[in-house]
Amino acid sequence: MGMWEDVAQDTGNGSRRERLGGRAVVAVVVVLLLLVGGGYAAAHAVAGDKVPRGTRISGVDVGGLTRDAAIDKLDRTFGPRGDVPIAITVEHRLAGDDDTARARLEPADIGLAVDYDASLDAAGAESSWSPGRQWSYFTGGDDVDAVVRFDDALFRAKLADAARGLGTPPKDGQVKLTADGVQTVAPVAGEAIDADAARDAITDAFLAGEESVDLQVTVAQPDIDADDVSAAVEAFADPAMSGPVTLEFGENEIRLPPRRFAAALSMAPQDGELVPVVDEKILTQLVASATADGKPVDATVRIVKGRPRIVPAKPGVEFDPAEVVQVFEGLLTKTGAERSGAVDAQVTDAEFTTKDAKALGIVEKVSEFSTSYPHADYRNTNIGRAAELVDGTILKPGEEFSLNGIVGERTRENGFTEGYIISNGILKLDLGGGVSQMATTTFNAMFFAGLEDIQHKPHSFYIDRYPVGREATVAWPTVDLRFRNDTDHGILIHSWVEPSDYSRQGKVTVQMWSTKVWDIDSRTSDRYAYVAPATRTLTTADCEPHTGSSGFKVDVTRIFRKHGESAIDHTEKFHTDYTPADTVVCKKPGPPPKQDPEQE
Description:
The N and C termini lie far apart (155 Å). Mean pLDDT is 84; it is low at 1-21, 23-47 and 132-136. Helix 10 packs across helix 11 and helix 13 crosses helix 15. By secondary structure, the chain is α+β, with helices and mostly antiparallel strands. It has 4 domains: 3-43; 56-220, no CATH class; 226-359, Ubiquitin-like (UB roll) (Roll); 364-599, no CATH class.
């Protein structure tokens, strides 16, 4: 017999009774559990998603109600209050003032309302099998504050309106970066309503059903205080303005000193501190002013405040403004040689570089000549336009000047008007009259600069406002004023007009700027070989009467001395043969003859 049998035999009837008793205990426990479980399920069925008994939400008794019933009761209480104005009184009692402002605010205008679901969740209204939930429903319940929502931006705007005229807002400290360096503005405390306290007070009044709230103006501290200002100066402003920043575009460098880039920098408040801001538009304009968009621009020389100044070449650059800002901003807090960085860009170099412009040697005024003219509107227009077109002309060594080539045809589209010209020995009206005044003045500036005369033609008859034997006329396109820069230096021509009016004569001036090579003197002979004028009677419609003058011959000698030396190096003779200016008598008009013109 096996082991179990041995045990049974040894225990006998007593063992059998023990087994029967154990089974009875298990049965009792099972029955008890069934009874408790049924009660727990019944409890859950009673509680459901109801609000714990005895619960009040901001004074509204919702204990034992289902969620839907509780929401309905809360809405009946709080819903209408959204349209009931709350009277706000703001008192100002600081610094001895005793002012009061009053306003009315409807809760709905600032989005103030009770969030019913969130409020019920906070009160414990939920469907759950947890013992804690069942216990809470039957034994819990408490006074709970309603959960509210509102629009903060609308609230602050309404609050500002309510307190308008009371107190002074605080002023943040500032850090300004200017052409003169770093400047700071100290923070100033103000007087304002505490927005958080006001929000709580208005919310409490809304929940309590009260229709008025009293508020007070209190001390308001700025967001940016003195410590924030000091930190911004030390960490950014002082390093940023400590020296120039150099941006590298290929082989070209753009050096920006602080006085220039300061306008692109500012410091703005953010999360209670001042942070640097780079104005992309201003910085891009600074870079664009030193570069050219697409095609490069050659270097040149201009007269600025009475002195020649090099205008640097501009490489043609195509760049991403955001890339420029990123590189620039990264250099601002660096020092010394580290304040230079390369910008990824496509670069085309200028053909005539800044170095080439410096090599021209345009450093001083080598000649200047002025002529005056009687008042006439056409002279102001035509001479002024010619001077404008000639101004800024640069002649490199060996290059030729052509007045017709620079001024162009005298047309209305080119800025010219009708004026008197000399045609076939007499005066007539035509476009561009007066331009020869510019030619004569330019010729004399060339003469005293010691440049090589290639082509000039004196007027047919002498005009007494011009230097005798040292004057020139032009006519498009046949009669021109031409000379060559036969020096080793560049020539810059600067010209302008002081217009005439009824009380004064006009004046045109031409200057030559370069490195002085020659000291020039002029010697003029006596007039000789006079020829008396004739009298001409004209019947053309454009006839202009004129009192004649004699023709004559004259010689002018240009004397060259090397600059700073007294000995004559060489001379050059100019011979002029003036024809008589005939007296013109006008008769009955007839068709005008065709003639070759000269501009007076």
